[in-house]
Design brief:
This protein is of the alpha/beta class and 411 residues long. It contains five helices and 14 strands. The chain has a domain of 241 residues. The strands form two sheets. The protein has a twelve-stranded mixed β-sheet with strand order 10-1-6-5-9-8-7-4-3-12-13-14, with no helix packed on it. Strands 2-11 form a two-stranded parallel ribbon. The longest helix is centred in the first third of the chain and has 31 residues.
């Protein structure tokens, strides 16, 4: 009896332990499998390739811009750039890539789409569309770019896409694409998470590579102008104002300025590609450009003042190293033990200078000797020896001489 009871208890214990082990294994598998970290595989983030002239979502308007077919994503793309980085966009001087007026009219023609569009752009109402669109500027993407494209169907999820290089977009004052011009759809810049592995679907164009897809980040603050590359022509740079459309999006006047080579920026987003000038690579977001690329500065001679030529030598400096200064105030001469100044209060002066007699009227300096601390009228030649220091000064014949003093009478 005891043997059968013991066997029954052992079987129950084994079943219980086995059930616990199975539950623990299921829990471990459920926690590890979704993340993919246990197997060493990162989670996948899917992006649909969206070629120029195509859209993967229902359009808001008809095309209000012209995509370019002559651009290919450069091999030195595939990184993050700030929206105000020179050379991030391309275009044609004095010609907008997108028509703001057409976008406003297309949205106002369908109040339901206008309400959805204004909500996606975080506007208060559809009445704010003209003012908002008037502050946008047309540009063309120079590289394949990560984005999310929003369709006109209310409540529909945005499409995670890669916009092909050459896609025309509207750019806001932070340098961010906000509208896709071939369909009027709002866009947001979005890159795959750092721990995700991007995968791509949809039609593949020539030159596409997952390593050249670019991420655009907002500039730290609003900017007034952005430097673009002239596409399909000369490899020139031009400066286009951002947010200069005015209310109503009038594109009749353009303020583009073609830059001279002397005015080129010190770096470009993707230099040396698509006809871009061969300039240094732009710094990564978060880096100080002045620390990466030294500012342009004119070299100056050492010891010269800022922005000028070196200082000229003053006239009291001798041109011959063997020549002594002729100014008595700057000349250090040996003292004559037999010559003493007549006034004790003037003993601090150099002994080489003749001292005036207190009882004598003010004596004028000899005509051949300049006054102290004044440059000589006729400077001696370079190799002339200095004057004899023991020579007594000659009195001026035109000067009034003091009367002779009688000898002291004896006691």
């Amino acid at each position: 009896m005891r043997s059968s009871t013991w066997h029954l208890t052992s079987r129950r214990s084994a079943l219980f332990i086995g059930l616990v082990a199975v539950v623990a294994a299921v829990v471990v598998v459920g926690m590890v499998s979704p993340s993919g970290k246990a197997s060493g595989k990162a989670a996948a983030a899917e992006f649909r390739r969206e070629p120029i002239g195509k859209t993967s979502v229902p359009a808001f308007t008809r095309a209000v811009g012209q995509d370019r077919t002559d651009l290919e994503s450069p091999s030195n793309g595939g990184r993050a750039f700030l929206g105000n980085t020179p050379g991030l966009y391309a275009g044609a001087p004095d010609r907008q890539s997108c028509d703001r007026g057409e976008l406003i009219r297309g949205l106002q023609a369908d109040p339901k789409k206008a309400a959805t569009w204004s909500r996606l752009q975080h506007l208060g109402s559809a009445d704010a569309i003209p003012d908002y669109v008037g502050r946008l500027t047309g540009a063309v993407l120079r590289s394949d770019t990560y984005a999310k494209v929003y369709g006109s169907r209310a409540g529909a999820k945005p499409s995670s896409a890669v916009l092909q290089a050459g896609t025309a977009v509207f750019v806001n004052q932070r340098g961010m694409p906000v509208v896709k011009c071939n369909c009027g759809s709002p866009v947001r810049m979005a890159a795959p998470p750092q721990d995700a592995r991007p995968t791509f679907t949809g039609p593949e164009w020539t030159g596409f590579s997952k390593s050249t897809v670019t991420e655009i980040q907002a500039a730290p603050k609003a900017v007034k102008r952005v430097v673009m590359l002239e596409a399909g022509g000369k490899s020139e740079l031009f400066k286009r104002p951002l947010g200069d459309g005015g209310k109503g999006g009038d594109d009749s006047q353009s303020a583009d300025t073609v830059l001279a080579k002397a005015d080129y920026p010190p770096y470009l987003a993707m230099p040396g590609e698509q006809g871009a000038p061969d300039l240094p690579e732009a710094p990564k977001p978060g880096e100080n450009p002045s620390e990466v690329v030294p500012p342009l500065e004119t070299k100056r001679p050492s010891g010269s003042p800022s922005g000028g030529m070196p200082e000229a030598q003053t006239s009291d400096q001798p041109t011959d190293p063997n020549q002594q200064p002729t100014d008595p105030a700057q000349q250090t001469q040996p003292s004559d033990p037999n010559q003493q100044p007549s006034d004790p209060a003037q003993q601090s002066q150099p002994p080489s200078q003749p001292q005036p007699d207190p009882n004598q009227t003010q004596q004028q300096p000899p005509p051949n000797q300049p006054p102290p601390n004044q440059p000589p009228p006729n400077q001696p030649p370079p190799n002339q020896p200095p004057p004899d220091q023991n020579q007594q000064p000659q009195p001026d014949p035109n000067q009034t001489q003091p009367p002779p003093q009688p000898p002291p009478s004896g006691p």
